[in-house]
Write a structure and sequence with these properties.
The protein has 1065 residues and is α+β, with helices and mostly antiparallel strands. It has 35 helices and 28 strands.
Length: 1065
């Protein structure tokens, strides 16, 4: 929106500019005409074409068509006003257009996209293009037009006159336009009061002098015209291009006016107008060049001076910022020139010319360094090279000793002889101080290493390259030399396997840094000891190395042996853990929980059993801080335990701290939460299904209302179409899509157990048999479907829903057997006490159940996804080949029917899905499955009764009215309950009331109760897009009240209305 609005505003601005230009074009044409003889074709300069050229030079080519149109209109308006024929003015216009196009494109070719007169080269190309080439090319068309129209008899004379007019106008107008369109150039471009006063006086003097020169009597003195050139020359030297171009144009207009005025007063024999005009043009051309060339040269010079000044400022700023001083020594004059930074470095006051002698420098250099520095400098001059050196100076200002880093290079002349030396000085005293501090620090840390009580080793390439005195004592060596270059594997215990070697002794192989790793060391006297190892990677003289800290923990080991006695025989696993998270003791319950023996656990990190602890925390201290609010107060936290066989189980961990002989230790108590988690998972699944169900039922109302309108109109359109109607397929596709959408809504409500059902007592075997006939058409021939039916399998369910369950289960079994196999559908009557189904919801005593099992010998279901089978939208099929609602829908339907669904599967051997439903006491002989074809009977449900329809949704109310009227009924509508009551009180006398259940102001049940007071014999049919729990909440019982669920089909609605009116619905 913003970009389109901006483009629209830009186009409007371009058109406004074009309109203004059209008026300017006409005005300049009129002015140019006024400056010529009324009966002569000689014009000093044609201003409109020059203005056109100037505007085209600065505007985008995309706006040229607007300028061309405006120029044509302005040109035509002027030429027609002076009696020029149309074809002639078109020729004049095209001539001007050719001049503009040639001028713009040639200037772009030689000066770039924009000509701003920044340099003399640009101006000279402008003079060549716009003062010669473009006018000459454009004048050919104008001269041809003049000859063809009979206004001239000489093509050459007309061509010369037209070329001169166009060239003169370009030289006068284009510089003026460019100067005022683009910003001021640096230099003499200010507009102070003094400058304005100077320009006003200069302009007045120019006007007076021009009047004197060109009036009769004065104008015949030709040499006096050259005096007028002083005025533009003065402006060129003192003022900006704007002022110069204004002055030149003013002089041109005034001189042209006086010239033509003078010629009009002469006799025809004296007139010779062409000669006078060309003389004026020559004079003005000289004036333009006299003024503009010096002005542009001066401006270019000023710009170069500004750039030079800026460059010098940048150089000075760089030297000040970096602290680098620059000096130059002229070997011929022996003069040394310093910049300001050099004076600052040596503590001297800056002299006017910044020239110092050699003694100024030599007296500042430290006497001990001076001879060597003079030698290096002389050697550099002799070999004509460059050098870098360091020396000390005594700063003059405060006498401080400073360190200087100097560089110099010798400059030579054309013959290769040295003429000068250019160099730099940099004060590096602070860097020297830092280096000294670093050396002091290194010495300090070296002495610290010597006095540390822990053993410190530096290892590189598997050998010891440094050891402190504590290492000598730990390994019981006589001197450090006995440890240096000794292989670390001879000092620290490592595994024989190379892979384990890298892990067990990381400082040997220079792997990741370690912290407090327990290891055994081998002393030089043959004894062993336990230590903790902490290592970190370092760089030693450019070589990768490892810094190793060894701490003797022999006493700690003895203490830990004493702590093992505190562990008792409890049902929870108890561990004793040290500060490093190493398991030091474990009770027998830990063996049963984790399947490790106590011997296997000792010495292992706690992360072996509880990986989350090891991943998130480096030490047991961090772990305690993570699980307890304070170290003293234990707090239970849940983690995942890992058994030896790789299986995982939930645990509850409590860690407490205790002290033994002043050492900090921790006791970890682990409790198995498998049983508790199983119950929580079941509860969570129930809550999740309920949450999804609430979401589904929340959108069902609005979605069902939309589908009622879509499917209703599509059904009516399809009924009115001929079989060969070209739009019949499109309407059928709309109806099919709406039907599928209704099916998805039904499935969402089914698995959430919020769908409106119509349960009846039926024989499950009949549903299985009907489904078997349908499924044979949906299953490939390489799959055999077998049915094993028990007798008397009567259940109280919704026939359509139980058929959907069978369909979903069989199709899932089919997809599990891509290479073929067998599917078995089996019904069986079982008793809950015998079948072991005591866990069924609602089962009690010896109640019987009907079991429907669907088994296959397909690929089976992996254990890791079995818990997700009943989650909505979970599917293992490819994208686009499954909705993930099949098992979730079946689960919801069975749960709503009071039954139970369970899955048993083995990977590679197949799957069995068992559905258990409460058995019915006796069969319902009147049950009959609904057929879709029955609703397609257009003759069913017709009547001529009067219907009062109450529906708050406008779209649903309209489609329902159309449907009922199409079946012959008379329909009166109301949008709410009070409106319906008002209609009844007007003696409406309807035969049936059709009302939505959930409406604002008054529900359907409340409306029906009030209507029966007014009309006791009226029939009532409820309808709603909400789920059955919402309908029941508003007082409507689906099982006993006349009710139809949205979305309904036209035939279905008509049949239901007919049945209610007849008392059978």
């Amino acid at each position: 929106m913003d970009s389109s609005a901006s483009m629209h505003e830009s186009r409007e601005a371009d058109w406004q500019l074009a309109v203004y230009f059209g008026f300017v074009f006409w005005g300049l044409a009129w002015l140019s005409r006024q400056l010529s003889l009324s009966d002569s074709s000689y014009i000093p300069f044609w201003l409109p074409s020059a203005a056109w050229l100037a505007v085209s030079m600065v505007m985008s080519i995309r706006s040229w068509h607007r300028l061309m149109f405006a120029a044509f209109v302005g040109n035509a308006a002027f030429d027609l006003s002076i009696g020029t024929p149309f074809l002639t003015l078109v020729g004049f216009y095209l001539s001007n257009l050719i001049q503009v196009v040639v001028g713009v494109f040639l200037l772009a070719r030689f000066n770039g996209q924009q000509t701003k007169f920044h340099c003399l080269r640009e101006f000279l190309w402008f003079v060549a293009v716009c003062g010669v080439i473009a006018p000459a090319i454009g004048a050919a068309g104008g001269a041809f037009t003049l000859v063809q129209s009979g206004w001239s008899t000489s093509f050459l004379d007309s061509w010369v006159t037209w070329s001169a007019n166009g060239a003169m106008a370009n030289l006068l107008v284009v510089p003026l336009a460019i100067a005022w369109i683009y910003p001021f150039r640096s230099g003499n471009s200010g507009f102070s009061r003094k400058r304005l006063l100077e320009f006003a006086l200069l302009w007045t003097a120019m006007a007076v002098a021009t009047w004197y020169v060109f009036v009769p009597g004065g104008g015949v003195l030709m040499p006096s015209k050259s005096l007028l050139l002083l005025f533009p020359l003065w402006a060129a030297i003192r003022m900006s291009l704007r002022s110069v171009s204004v002055l030149i144009l003013s002089m041109a207009i005034l001189s042209a006016f006086l010239t033509t005025h003078f010629l009009q007063g002469l006799s025809p024999d004296q007139m010779a107008d062409g000669l006078h005009v060309r003389t004026l043009q020559s004079f003005l051309a000289v004036a333009v060049l006299t003024a503009l060339v010096p002005n542009i040269v001066i401006s270019e010079r000023n710009q170069n001076l500004v750039r030079l000044t800026e460059s010098q400022q940048v150089t000075r700023l760089a030297t000040v910022t970096t602290g680098v001083g620059i000096w130059e020594w002229n070997l011929h004059t022996n003069a040394v020139r310093w910049d300001e930074q050099m004076f600052q470095i040596y503590g001297l006051e800056v002299t006017g010319e910044r020239i110092v002698d050699y003694r100024t420098w030599s007296s500042s250099v430290h006497p001990e360094d001076l001879p060597e520095q003079e030698r290096i400098l002389n050697d550099t001059i002799e070999r004509i090279g460059q050098s870098r050196r360091e020396f000390r100076i005594r700063r003059h200002r405060d006498g401080q000793l400073r360190f200087i880093q100097a560089t110099e290079v010798v400059d030579v002349d054309a013959t290769g002889k040295p003429v000068a030396v250019v160099g730099t000085n940099l004060d590096i005293t602070d860097r020297k101080s830092t280096e000294q501090s670093l050396r002091t620090s290194e010495e300090r840390y070296r002495r610290l290493m010597e006095f540390l009580p822990e053993a410190i080793l530096v290892c590189a390439q598997g050998r010891v390259v440094f050891c402190n005195p504590a290492s000598v004592r730990l390994f019981r060596a006589d001197s450090p030399s006995q440890l240096l270059q000794k292989p670390t594997r001879d000092l620290v215990e490592i595994e024989h396997d190379e892979a384990e070697q890298a892990e067990s002794s990381p400082f040997v192989s220079q792997c990741q840094p370690t912290e407090d790793v327990l290891r055994t060391i081998f002393r030089l006297d043959g004894s062993c000891s336990s230590v903790t190892v902490t290592s970190a990677s370092i760089s030693d003289v450019g070589e990768d190395a490892v810094l190793v800290c060894l701490r003797d923990i022999s006493e700690r080991e003895r203490t830990m042996n004493l702590l093992r006695s505190v562990l008792g025989s409890v049902t929870d696993a108890i561990f004793t853990i040290d500060l490093q998270g190493i398991i030091r003791s474990a009770n027998p319950t830990a063996e049963r929980f984790f399947q490790y023996s106590v011997e296997e656990l000792l010495g292992q990190h706690i992360s072996l059993l509880l990986p989350a602890v090891g991943q998130a925390n480096k030490s047991i201290g961090d772990f305690v801080s993570a699980v307890n609010e304070t170290v003293a107060v234990a707090k239970e936290h849940e983690f995942e335990g890992h058994r030896k066989d790789g299986s995982r189980f939930p645990v509850e961990l409590t860690v407490t701290e205790f002290l033994l002989s002043g050492d900090q230790h921790f006791t970890g108590v682990v409790r198995d939460l498998t049983s508790r988690k199983r119950l929580e998972t079941q509860l969570l699944h129930i809550q999740k299904m309920d949450a999804v169900g609430r979401l589904a039922s929340g959108v069902a109302h609005d979605f069902n209302n939309l589908l009622t309108v879509i499917n209703g109109y599509a059904d009516l359109l399809l009924a009115d179409m001929e079989s060969n109607d070209p739009d019949r397929n499109a309407v059928s596709a709309i109806l099919d899509a709406g039907t599928r959408a209704a099916s998805v809504t039904s499935q969402l409500l089914a698995f959430s157990r919020r769908t409106v059902i119509a349960p009846v007592v039926l024989d499950l075997n009949e549903i299985v048999a009907q489904s078997h006939q349908l499924l044979r058409r949906l299953i490939s021939e390489n799959i055999d479907v077998k049915v094993v039916a028990d007798s008397h399998c009567f259940v109280y369910v919704d026939a359509n829903q139980i058929g959907q369950v069978i369909m979903n289960l069989v199709l899932n079994a089919r997809d599990a057997m891509p290479n073929g196999g067998q599917i078995c559908l089996k019904t069986q009557r079982i008793c809950s006490t015998n079948g072991g189904q005591s866990g069924l919801s609602g089962s009690s005593g010896n109640r019987d159940f009907i079991q429907l099992s669907v088994s296959d010998d397909g690929v089976g279901i992996p254990e890791e996804i079995r818990s997700k089978l009943f989650e909505p939208f979970f599917t293992t099929k490819e994208v686009g080949k499954g909705t993930g609602l099949g098992l979730a829908t079946a689960y919801g339907i069975i749960q709503q029917a009071g039954g139970h669904l369970e899955v048993e599967s083995q990977v590679g051997r197949g799957t069995v899905v068992r559905v258990l439903l409460p058995a019915a006491e006796q069969p319902e002989t009147s049950w009959k499955a609904d057929r879709v074809a029955g609703e397609q009977d257009q003759n069913a449900g017709k009547g001529d009764e009067r219907i009062l329809l109450v529906e708050d949704d406008d779209s649903v109310r309209r489609i329902t009215t159309v449907v009922l009227q199409s079946f012959g009924y008379t329909v009166v509508t109301a949008s709410n309950g009070p409106e319906a009551i008002d209609l009844l009180q007007q003696d409406l006398q309807p035969d049936i009331l059709i009302t939505d259940v959930v409406m604002p102001e008054m529900s359907g049940r409340e409306l029906a109760d009030k209507v029966r007071i007014i009309a006791p014999k009226i029939r009532v049919l409820y309808c709603s897009g909400y789920t059955d729990d919402a309908v029941l909440l508003h007082g409507v019982r689906v099982a006993t009240d006349a009710y139809i669920q949205k979305p309904y089909t036209p035939v279905g609605l008509a049949k239901k209305v007919r049945a209610v009116i007849d008392g059978v619905g």
